[in-house]
Amino acid sequence: MRQRINCFIVYGEPEATRETVTHLNASPLVQHIYLLTTNPDAEVIEHTILLPVNGLWGTDTFRKIAGYATTDYSLIYTQPERLTPGMFALERFTAVADDTDAGLVYSDYYELKEEKLTTLPVIDYQWGSLRDDFNFGPVLFYRSKALLEAVETMDKGYQYAGLYDLRLKVSQQHQLVHINEYLYTKIETDTRRSGEKLFDYVDPKNRNVQLEMEEVCTDHLKRIGGYLPPHFKKIDFDTEQFETEASVIIPVRNRARTIDDAIRSVLRQKTSFPFNLIIIDNHSTDGTTEIIERYKEDIRLIHIRPERNDLGIGGCWNMGVHHPACGKFAIQLDSDDVYSGDDTLQQIVDAFYDQQCAMVVGTYKMTNFEMETIPPGVIDHREWTPENGRNNALRINGLGAPRAFYTPLLRQINLPNTSYGEDYALGLRISREYQIGRIYNVLYLCRRWEDNSDASLDIVKMNRYNTYKDRIRTWELQARQKKNR
Question: If pLDDT is split at 50, 70 and 90, which confidence band does 191 have?
Fold first, then answer.
Protein backbone atom coordinates (compact mmCIF):
# COMPACT_ATOMS: atom_id res chain seq x y z
CA MET A 1 0.00 0.00 0.00
CA ARG A 2 1.32 3.41 -1.01
CA GLN A 3 2.27 5.84 1.75
CA ARG A 4 -0.15 8.72 1.24
CA ILE A 5 -0.22 10.60 4.55
CA ASN A 6 2.21 12.83 6.40
CA CYS A 7 1.21 13.50 10.01
CA PHE A 8 1.82 16.72 11.92
CA ILE A 9 1.14 16.36 15.63
CA VAL A 10 1.59 18.57 18.67
CA TYR A 11 4.45 17.40 20.85
CA GLY A 12 3.04 16.86 24.35
CA GLU A 13 4.33 14.75 27.21
CA PRO A 14 6.92 12.39 25.68
CA GLU A 15 5.13 9.21 26.79
CA ALA A 16 1.74 10.33 25.45
CA THR A 17 3.33 11.54 22.22
CA ARG A 18 5.21 8.27 21.87
CA GLU A 19 1.95 6.32 22.14
CA THR A 20 0.32 8.53 19.49
CA VAL A 21 3.28 7.98 17.19
CA THR A 22 3.08 4.21 17.67
CA HIS A 23 -0.61 4.18 16.76
CA LEU A 24 -0.11 6.31 13.65
CA ASN A 25 2.91 4.35 12.47
CA ALA A 26 0.83 1.18 12.58
CA SER A 27 -0.91 2.32 9.40
CA PRO A 28 0.92 1.55 6.15
CA LEU A 29 -0.53 4.77 4.74
CA VAL A 30 1.73 6.95 6.91
CA GLN A 31 5.01 8.11 5.44
CA HIS A 32 6.40 10.61 7.98
CA ILE A 33 5.38 11.95 11.39
CA TYR A 34 6.44 15.49 12.25
CA LEU A 35 6.34 16.73 15.84
CA LEU A 36 5.32 20.39 16.16
CA THR A 37 7.17 21.88 19.11
CA THR A 38 8.15 25.27 20.45
CA ASN A 39 11.09 23.62 22.22
CA PRO A 40 14.00 23.10 19.78
CA ASP A 41 15.73 20.91 22.39
CA ALA A 42 12.81 18.52 22.80
CA GLU A 43 13.60 14.83 23.16
CA VAL A 44 13.75 13.09 19.81
CA ILE A 45 11.19 10.28 19.51
CA GLU A 46 11.95 7.31 17.30
CA HIS A 47 10.30 7.31 13.86
CA THR A 48 9.55 11.05 14.00
CA ILE A 49 11.03 14.31 12.77
CA LEU A 50 11.11 17.37 15.02
CA LEU A 51 9.57 20.45 13.45
CA PRO A 52 10.42 23.47 15.65
CA VAL A 53 7.91 26.35 15.39
CA ASN A 54 7.65 29.74 17.06
CA GLY A 55 3.99 29.26 17.98
CA LEU A 56 1.74 26.30 17.36
CA TRP A 57 -1.01 28.01 15.40
CA GLY A 58 0.66 31.00 13.82
CA THR A 59 0.86 31.55 10.08
CA ASP A 60 4.55 30.61 10.00
CA THR A 61 3.71 27.15 11.35
CA PHE A 62 1.47 26.39 8.39
CA ARG A 63 3.96 27.77 5.95
CA LYS A 64 6.44 25.36 7.47
CA ILE A 65 3.95 22.47 7.35
CA ALA A 66 3.35 23.23 3.68
CA GLY A 67 7.02 22.61 3.00
CA TYR A 68 6.63 19.04 4.26
CA ALA A 69 3.16 18.31 2.86
CA THR A 70 4.59 16.10 0.13
CA THR A 71 2.03 13.28 0.28
CA ASP A 72 -1.58 13.22 -0.93
CA TYR A 73 -2.89 14.06 2.52
CA SER A 74 -1.70 15.90 5.60
CA LEU A 75 -3.09 14.88 8.98
CA ILE A 76 -2.86 17.59 11.65
CA TYR A 77 -3.51 16.56 15.25
CA THR A 78 -4.07 19.71 17.28
CA GLN A 79 -3.80 18.46 20.86
CA PRO A 80 -0.87 17.19 22.93
CA GLU A 81 -2.79 14.37 24.63
CA ARG A 82 -2.70 10.78 23.40
CA LEU A 83 -4.53 9.96 20.17
CA THR A 84 -5.82 6.46 19.49
CA PRO A 85 -7.08 5.96 15.91
CA GLY A 86 -9.85 3.43 15.43
CA MET A 87 -9.48 0.32 13.33
CA PHE A 88 -8.65 1.33 9.74
CA ALA A 89 -9.43 4.97 10.65
CA LEU A 90 -6.79 6.45 8.37
CA GLU A 91 -7.97 4.23 5.55
CA ARG A 92 -11.49 5.58 6.10
CA PHE A 93 -10.35 9.20 6.10
CA THR A 94 -8.45 8.56 2.88
CA ALA A 95 -11.34 6.77 1.15
CA VAL A 96 -13.85 9.52 1.90
CA ALA A 97 -11.37 12.22 0.87
CA ASP A 98 -10.70 10.34 -2.39
CA ASP A 99 -14.42 9.94 -3.11
CA THR A 100 -15.44 13.53 -2.35
CA ASP A 101 -12.37 15.54 -3.41
CA ALA A 102 -12.80 17.36 -0.09
CA GLY A 103 -10.25 19.93 1.00
CA LEU A 104 -10.71 18.89 4.63
CA VAL A 105 -12.25 15.78 6.16
CA TYR A 106 -13.12 15.45 9.85
CA SER A 107 -15.09 12.95 11.90
CA ASP A 108 -16.96 12.20 15.09
CA TYR A 109 -14.79 10.81 17.85
CA TYR A 110 -14.67 9.29 21.32
CA GLU A 111 -13.55 11.27 24.32
CA LEU A 112 -11.88 9.77 27.36
CA LYS A 113 -12.43 12.05 30.34
CA GLU A 114 -11.92 11.07 33.97
CA GLU A 115 -11.73 7.41 32.96
CA LYS A 116 -15.10 7.57 31.20
CA LEU A 117 -15.45 7.01 27.44
CA THR A 118 -18.17 9.06 25.75
CA THR A 119 -19.21 9.74 22.18
CA LEU A 120 -18.49 13.18 20.74
CA PRO A 121 -20.49 13.73 17.55
CA VAL A 122 -19.63 16.92 15.70
CA ILE A 123 -21.78 18.84 13.21
CA ASP A 124 -21.76 19.40 9.48
CA TYR A 125 -19.88 22.43 8.17
CA GLN A 126 -22.03 25.10 6.55
CA TRP A 127 -21.25 28.18 4.49
CA GLY A 128 -22.03 30.19 7.58
CA SER A 129 -19.90 28.13 9.99
CA LEU A 130 -17.64 31.10 10.60
CA ARG A 131 -17.03 30.66 14.33
CA ASP A 132 -13.32 30.37 14.98
CA ASP A 133 -14.14 27.79 17.68
CA PHE A 134 -16.12 25.51 15.36
CA ASN A 135 -15.44 21.99 16.65
CA PHE A 136 -13.96 19.77 13.97
CA GLY A 137 -12.40 17.56 16.61
CA PRO A 138 -8.62 17.54 16.99
CA VAL A 139 -7.92 15.42 13.87
CA LEU A 140 -7.89 17.51 10.68
CA PHE A 141 -7.36 15.54 7.47
CA TYR A 142 -6.35 17.99 4.75
CA ARG A 143 -5.88 17.33 1.08
CA SER A 144 -2.30 18.51 0.72
CA LYS A 145 -3.00 20.28 -2.55
CA ALA A 146 -5.79 22.30 -0.89
CA LEU A 147 -3.55 23.09 2.06
CA LEU A 148 -0.75 24.29 -0.21
CA GLU A 149 -3.13 26.45 -2.26
CA ALA A 150 -4.48 28.05 0.91
CA VAL A 151 -1.04 28.72 2.37
CA GLU A 152 0.05 30.38 -0.88
CA THR A 153 -2.76 32.94 -0.44
CA MET A 154 -1.79 33.76 3.16
CA ASP A 155 -0.59 37.29 2.62
CA LYS A 156 -0.62 38.25 6.32
CA GLY A 157 1.22 36.75 9.25
CA TYR A 158 -0.75 35.90 12.39
CA GLN A 159 0.49 34.76 15.74
CA TYR A 160 -2.68 32.97 16.84
CA ALA A 161 -5.10 32.78 13.90
CA GLY A 162 -3.13 30.73 11.39
CA LEU A 163 -5.27 27.60 11.75
CA TYR A 164 -8.49 29.61 11.44
CA ASP A 165 -7.09 31.40 8.38
CA LEU A 166 -6.15 28.07 6.82
CA ARG A 167 -9.62 26.60 7.32
CA LEU A 168 -11.44 29.59 5.84
CA LYS A 169 -9.14 29.78 2.84
CA VAL A 170 -9.55 26.06 2.16
CA SER A 171 -13.35 26.46 2.41
CA GLN A 172 -13.30 29.15 -0.29
CA GLN A 173 -12.27 26.58 -2.89
CA HIS A 174 -13.14 23.17 -1.46
CA GLN A 175 -15.84 21.43 0.52
CA LEU A 176 -15.27 20.45 4.14
CA VAL A 177 -16.66 16.97 4.71
CA HIS A 178 -17.91 15.50 7.98
CA ILE A 179 -17.72 11.73 8.43
CA ASN A 180 -20.54 10.72 10.76
CA GLU A 181 -18.48 7.91 12.23
CA TYR A 182 -16.41 7.63 15.41
CA LEU A 183 -12.92 7.21 13.98
CA TYR A 184 -10.63 7.89 16.96
CA THR A 185 -10.36 8.47 20.70
CA LYS A 186 -8.74 11.46 22.34
CA ILE A 187 -8.05 12.35 25.96
CA GLU A 188 -9.96 15.36 27.36
CA THR A 189 -8.46 17.34 30.22
CA ASP A 190 -10.92 20.27 30.29
CA THR A 191 -13.56 19.14 32.80
CA ARG A 192 -15.61 22.35 32.87
CA ARG A 193 -19.32 22.27 32.06
CA SER A 194 -20.58 23.83 28.83
CA GLY A 195 -21.86 26.94 30.64
CA GLU A 196 -18.42 27.59 32.10
CA LYS A 197 -16.76 27.50 28.67
CA LEU A 198 -19.34 29.74 27.04
CA PHE A 199 -17.56 33.04 27.68
CA ASP A 200 -13.95 32.05 26.95
CA TYR A 201 -13.90 34.19 23.83
CA VAL A 202 -14.69 37.40 25.74
CA ASP A 203 -12.13 36.82 28.47
CA PRO A 204 -9.91 39.95 28.47
CA LYS A 205 -6.75 37.86 28.37
CA ASN A 206 -7.82 36.58 24.94
CA ARG A 207 -8.19 40.08 23.48
CA ASN A 208 -5.21 39.87 21.11
CA VAL A 209 -6.38 36.48 19.89
CA GLN A 210 -9.83 37.87 19.14
CA LEU A 211 -8.45 40.82 17.20
CA GLU A 212 -6.56 38.44 14.92
CA MET A 213 -9.60 36.21 14.49
CA GLU A 214 -11.68 39.25 13.52
CA GLU A 215 -9.12 40.31 10.91
CA VAL A 216 -9.09 36.82 9.38
CA CYS A 217 -12.88 36.62 9.25
CA THR A 218 -13.20 40.10 7.75
CA ASP A 219 -10.69 39.21 5.04
CA HIS A 220 -12.65 36.02 4.31
CA LEU A 221 -15.92 37.96 3.98
CA LYS A 222 -14.28 40.36 1.53
CA ARG A 223 -13.00 37.45 -0.57
CA ILE A 224 -16.43 35.78 -0.79
CA GLY A 225 -18.53 38.93 -1.26
CA GLY A 226 -20.10 38.97 2.19
CA TYR A 227 -18.41 42.04 3.68
CA LEU A 228 -20.53 45.12 4.44
CA PRO A 229 -18.87 48.56 4.62
CA PRO A 230 -19.95 50.94 7.43
CA HIS A 231 -22.85 52.60 5.60
CA PHE A 232 -26.24 52.47 7.33
CA LYS A 233 -29.86 53.44 6.80
CA LYS A 234 -31.07 56.42 8.79
CA ILE A 235 -33.65 56.01 11.54
CA ASP A 236 -36.63 58.36 11.91
CA PHE A 237 -37.96 58.04 15.44
CA ASP A 238 -41.08 60.08 14.66
CA THR A 239 -42.74 57.80 12.11
CA GLU A 240 -45.23 56.53 14.72
CA GLN A 241 -46.70 57.89 17.91
CA PHE A 242 -46.42 55.94 21.18
CA GLU A 243 -48.02 56.68 24.53
CA THR A 244 -45.08 54.97 26.23
CA GLU A 245 -41.45 55.62 25.41
CA ALA A 246 -40.06 52.25 26.50
CA SER A 247 -41.27 48.78 27.38
CA VAL A 248 -39.26 46.11 29.14
CA ILE A 249 -40.13 42.67 27.75
CA ILE A 250 -39.75 39.60 29.99
CA PRO A 251 -40.74 36.18 28.63
CA VAL A 252 -40.94 33.77 31.56
CA ARG A 253 -41.74 30.17 32.32
CA ASN A 254 -41.22 28.65 35.76
CA ARG A 255 -38.84 31.15 37.33
CA ALA A 256 -40.38 31.46 40.78
CA ARG A 257 -36.92 31.82 42.34
CA THR A 258 -35.92 34.83 40.23
CA ILE A 259 -38.89 36.63 38.67
CA ASP A 260 -39.52 38.85 41.72
CA ASP A 261 -35.94 40.20 41.56
CA ALA A 262 -36.34 40.88 37.85
CA ILE A 263 -39.64 42.73 38.29
CA ARG A 264 -38.35 44.89 41.13
CA SER A 265 -35.24 45.83 39.14
CA VAL A 266 -37.52 47.21 36.41
CA LEU A 267 -40.08 49.01 38.57
CA ARG A 268 -37.37 50.86 40.50
CA GLN A 269 -36.07 52.53 37.31
CA LYS A 270 -35.90 56.34 37.34
CA THR A 271 -36.57 57.92 33.97
CA SER A 272 -37.59 61.18 32.37
CA PHE A 273 -40.20 59.35 30.29
CA PRO A 274 -43.07 56.88 30.87
CA PHE A 275 -42.25 53.17 30.66
CA ASN A 276 -43.98 49.89 31.35
CA LEU A 277 -43.16 46.23 31.87
CA ILE A 278 -44.70 43.54 29.67
CA ILE A 279 -44.39 40.01 31.06
CA ILE A 280 -45.34 37.11 28.83
CA ASP A 281 -46.03 34.30 31.31
CA ASN A 282 -45.69 31.19 29.15
CA HIS A 283 -47.80 28.67 31.10
CA SER A 284 -45.79 28.70 34.34
CA THR A 285 -46.72 26.02 36.88
CA ASP A 286 -44.30 26.64 39.76
CA GLY A 287 -45.79 29.74 41.37
CA THR A 288 -44.31 32.28 38.95
CA THR A 289 -47.80 33.43 37.91
CA GLU A 290 -48.81 34.12 41.50
CA ILE A 291 -45.65 36.16 42.12
CA ILE A 292 -46.37 38.33 39.08
CA GLU A 293 -49.95 38.84 40.29
CA ARG A 294 -48.66 40.46 43.46
CA TYR A 295 -47.89 43.53 41.33
CA LYS A 296 -51.29 43.79 39.64
CA GLU A 297 -51.98 47.12 41.33
CA ASP A 298 -49.04 48.71 39.50
CA ILE A 299 -50.48 49.96 36.20
CA ARG A 300 -47.00 49.82 34.63
CA LEU A 301 -47.03 46.00 34.69
CA ILE A 302 -48.88 44.20 31.91
CA HIS A 303 -49.27 40.47 32.56
CA ILE A 304 -49.91 38.43 29.41
CA ARG A 305 -50.81 34.74 29.62
CA PRO A 306 -50.89 33.34 26.07
CA GLU A 307 -53.68 30.98 25.07
CA ARG A 308 -51.44 29.23 22.55
CA ASN A 309 -48.90 26.69 23.75
CA ASP A 310 -46.42 26.72 20.87
CA LEU A 311 -44.42 29.79 21.82
CA GLY A 312 -40.68 29.81 22.36
CA ILE A 313 -38.86 32.82 23.77
CA GLY A 314 -38.91 34.49 20.35
CA GLY A 315 -42.65 33.93 20.02
CA CYS A 316 -43.23 35.42 23.46
CA TRP A 317 -41.19 38.45 22.43
CA ASN A 318 -43.31 38.86 19.30
CA MET A 319 -46.46 38.77 21.42
CA GLY A 320 -45.08 41.45 23.73
CA VAL A 321 -43.79 43.71 20.97
CA HIS A 322 -47.09 43.58 19.04
CA HIS A 323 -49.11 44.36 22.16
CA PRO A 324 -50.75 47.80 21.72
CA ALA A 325 -49.18 49.02 24.98
CA CYS A 326 -45.63 48.35 23.80
CA GLY A 327 -43.53 51.49 23.79
CA LYS A 328 -41.34 53.04 21.13
CA PHE A 329 -38.35 51.05 22.36
CA ALA A 330 -38.51 47.40 23.48
CA ILE A 331 -35.86 46.50 26.04
CA GLN A 332 -34.77 43.00 27.04
CA LEU A 333 -34.56 41.51 30.49
CA ASP A 334 -34.28 37.76 31.07
CA SER A 335 -36.41 36.39 33.86
CA ASP A 336 -33.42 35.30 35.98
CA ASP A 337 -31.35 38.47 35.54
CA VAL A 338 -31.62 42.03 36.88
CA TYR A 339 -30.67 45.54 35.87
CA SER A 340 -27.60 46.71 37.74
CA GLY A 341 -28.89 50.18 38.66
CA ASP A 342 -31.94 52.41 38.50
CA ASP A 343 -30.79 54.34 35.43
CA THR A 344 -30.51 51.46 32.94
CA LEU A 345 -33.60 52.39 30.92
CA GLN A 346 -32.61 56.05 30.80
CA GLN A 347 -29.14 55.21 29.49
CA ILE A 348 -30.56 52.91 26.81
CA VAL A 349 -33.17 55.34 25.51
CA ASP A 350 -30.65 58.17 25.48
CA ALA A 351 -28.31 55.98 23.43
CA PHE A 352 -30.95 55.48 20.72
CA TYR A 353 -31.22 59.21 20.14
CA ASP A 354 -27.54 60.02 20.65
CA GLN A 355 -26.27 57.28 18.33
CA GLN A 356 -29.20 57.26 15.85
CA CYS A 357 -29.39 53.48 15.86
CA ALA A 358 -32.08 50.81 15.46
CA MET A 359 -30.73 48.59 18.23
CA VAL A 360 -28.69 49.18 21.37
CA VAL A 361 -26.53 46.62 23.17
CA GLY A 362 -25.22 47.26 26.67
CA THR A 363 -22.61 45.74 28.94
CA TYR A 364 -23.21 43.09 31.58
CA LYS A 365 -21.46 41.52 34.53
CA MET A 366 -21.37 37.79 35.25
CA THR A 367 -22.56 36.93 38.77
CA ASN A 368 -23.60 33.92 40.79
CA PHE A 369 -27.15 33.50 42.09
CA GLU A 370 -26.40 35.85 45.01
CA MET A 371 -25.27 38.44 42.44
CA GLU A 372 -21.62 38.26 43.47
CA THR A 373 -19.17 38.78 40.59
CA ILE A 374 -17.73 35.63 39.03
CA PRO A 375 -15.18 35.17 36.20
CA PRO A 376 -14.84 36.52 33.60
CA GLY A 377 -16.59 39.46 35.27
CA VAL A 378 -17.55 42.37 33.01
CA ILE A 379 -18.39 41.45 29.42
CA ASP A 380 -18.50 44.52 27.23
CA HIS A 381 -18.09 43.05 23.74
CA ARG A 382 -15.65 45.74 22.71
CA GLU A 383 -15.03 43.73 19.55
CA TRP A 384 -18.17 45.46 18.29
CA THR A 385 -17.04 48.60 16.49
CA PRO A 386 -19.12 50.92 14.29
CA GLU A 387 -16.71 50.21 11.45
CA ASN A 388 -16.70 46.41 11.56
CA GLY A 389 -19.12 45.17 14.21
CA ARG A 390 -21.70 43.80 11.82
CA ASN A 391 -19.07 41.79 9.96
CA ASN A 392 -17.45 40.44 13.10
CA ALA A 393 -20.94 39.51 14.37
CA LEU A 394 -20.89 36.61 11.90
CA ARG A 395 -17.90 35.12 13.76
CA ILE A 396 -18.99 35.38 17.38
CA ASN A 397 -21.83 33.59 19.15
CA GLY A 398 -23.64 36.52 20.74
CA LEU A 399 -23.97 40.30 20.74
CA GLY A 400 -24.16 41.11 24.44
CA ALA A 401 -26.86 42.33 26.84
CA PRO A 402 -29.12 44.02 27.56
CA ARG A 403 -30.48 44.38 24.04
CA ALA A 404 -33.02 46.99 23.03
CA PHE A 405 -34.85 47.63 19.75
CA TYR A 406 -36.77 50.31 17.93
CA THR A 407 -40.27 48.83 18.06
CA PRO A 408 -41.61 49.76 14.59
CA LEU A 409 -38.64 48.01 12.97
CA LEU A 410 -38.97 45.03 15.29
CA ARG A 411 -42.62 44.67 14.34
CA GLN A 412 -41.59 44.43 10.69
CA ILE A 413 -38.84 41.85 11.19
CA ASN A 414 -40.13 39.76 14.15
CA LEU A 415 -38.08 37.16 15.99
CA PRO A 416 -37.78 33.47 15.10
CA ASN A 417 -40.09 31.46 17.37
CA THR A 418 -37.25 29.62 19.07
CA SER A 419 -35.79 29.58 22.57
CA TYR A 420 -32.14 29.74 21.55
CA GLY A 421 -30.44 32.07 19.07
CA GLU A 422 -33.55 34.16 18.45
CA ASP A 423 -31.89 37.34 19.69
CA TYR A 424 -28.73 36.63 17.71
CA ALA A 425 -30.73 36.14 14.50
CA LEU A 426 -32.48 39.45 15.10
CA GLY A 427 -29.22 41.29 15.77
CA LEU A 428 -27.66 39.98 12.55
CA ARG A 429 -30.74 40.93 10.55
CA ILE A 430 -30.87 44.47 11.94
CA SER A 431 -27.13 45.01 11.53
CA ARG A 432 -27.38 44.16 7.82
CA GLU A 433 -28.95 47.59 7.26
CA TYR A 434 -28.87 49.60 10.47
CA GLN A 435 -26.36 50.79 12.99
CA ILE A 436 -26.28 49.05 16.36
CA GLY A 437 -25.44 51.35 19.24
CA ARG A 438 -23.25 50.37 22.17
CA ILE A 439 -23.12 51.26 25.87
CA TYR A 440 -19.97 50.25 27.74
CA ASN A 441 -21.28 50.94 31.24
CA VAL A 442 -22.44 47.86 33.18
CA LEU A 443 -26.24 47.89 32.88
CA TYR A 444 -27.10 44.30 33.63
CA LEU A 445 -26.27 41.45 36.00
CA CYS A 446 -26.28 38.06 34.27
CA ARG A 447 -26.83 35.42 36.93
CA ARG A 448 -25.26 32.02 36.39
CA TRP A 449 -27.02 29.22 38.24
CA GLU A 450 -28.04 25.61 37.78
CA ASP A 451 -31.30 26.42 35.95
CA ASN A 452 -29.75 28.57 33.22
CA SER A 453 -30.75 27.20 29.84
CA ASP A 454 -27.08 26.80 28.86
CA ALA A 455 -25.59 25.91 32.27
CA SER A 456 -24.72 22.33 31.37
CA LEU A 457 -25.73 21.23 27.90
CA ASP A 458 -25.36 17.66 26.74
CA ILE A 459 -23.57 17.22 23.44
CA VAL A 460 -26.77 16.54 21.47
CA LYS A 461 -28.40 19.79 22.58
CA MET A 462 -25.16 21.75 22.14
CA ASN A 463 -24.83 20.44 18.59
CA ARG A 464 -28.45 21.34 17.85
CA TYR A 465 -27.92 24.88 19.11
CA ASN A 466 -24.66 25.31 17.19
CA THR A 467 -26.19 23.91 14.01
CA TYR A 468 -29.03 26.40 14.28
CA LYS A 469 -26.73 29.36 14.84
CA ASP A 470 -24.59 28.28 11.89
CA ARG A 471 -27.78 28.08 9.83
CA ILE A 472 -28.67 31.63 10.89
CA ARG A 473 -25.22 32.77 9.81
CA THR A 474 -25.56 30.95 6.50
CA TRP A 475 -28.84 32.67 5.68
CA GLU A 476 -27.49 36.05 6.75
CA LEU A 477 -24.29 35.58 4.76
CA GLN A 478 -26.30 34.64 1.69
CA ALA A 479 -28.46 37.74 2.14
CA ARG A 480 -25.40 39.96 2.41
CA GLN A 481 -23.83 38.42 -0.67
CA LYS A 482 -27.09 39.04 -2.52
CA LYS A 483 -27.18 42.62 -1.24
CA ASN A 484 -23.65 43.20 -2.53
CA ARG A 485 -24.47 41.77 -5.93
Answer: low
Domains of the chain: 5-191 (3.90.550.10), 246-484 (3.90.550.10)
Q: What digits encode the pLDDT tens for the residues 306-364?
A: 999 999 999 999 999 999 999 999 999 999 999 999 999 999 999 999 999 999 999 99
Percent of the chain with pLDDT over 70: 95
| pLDDT per residue as tens digits for the range 381-426 | 887 888 999 999 999 998 999 999 999 999 999 999 999 999 999 9
- pLDDT over 50 at 47, yes or no: yes
Q: What is the mean pLDDT of the chain?
A: 94
Q: What is the mean pLDDT of residues 40-52?
A: 92
Q: Which of 88, 91, 119, 125 is nearest to 106 (CA)?
A: 125
Three-class DSSP labels, the chain:
CCCCEEEEEECCCHHHHHHHHHHHHCCCCEEEEEEEECCCCCCCCCCCEEEECCCCCCHHHHHHHHHHCCCCEEEEECCCCCEEECCCHHHHHHHHHHHHCCCEEEEEEEEEECCEEEEECCCCCCCCCCCCCCCCCCEEEEEHHHHHHHHHCCCCCCCCCHHHHHHHHHHCCCCEEEEEEEEEEEECCCCCCHHHHCCHHHCHHHHHHHHHHHHHHHHHHHHHCCCCCCCCCCCCCCCCCCCCCEEEEEEECCCCCCHHHHHHHHHCCCCCCCEEEEEEECCCCCCHHHHHHCCCCCCCEEEECCCCCCCCHHHHHHHHHCCCCCCCEEEECCCCCEECCCCHHHHHHHHHHHHCCCEEEEEEEEECCCCCEEEEEEECCCCCCCCCHHHHCCCCCCCCCCEEEEHHHHHHHCCCCCCCCHHHHHHHHHHCCCCEEEEEEEEEEEECCCCCCCCCCCHHHHHHHHHHHHHHHHHHHHHHHHHHC
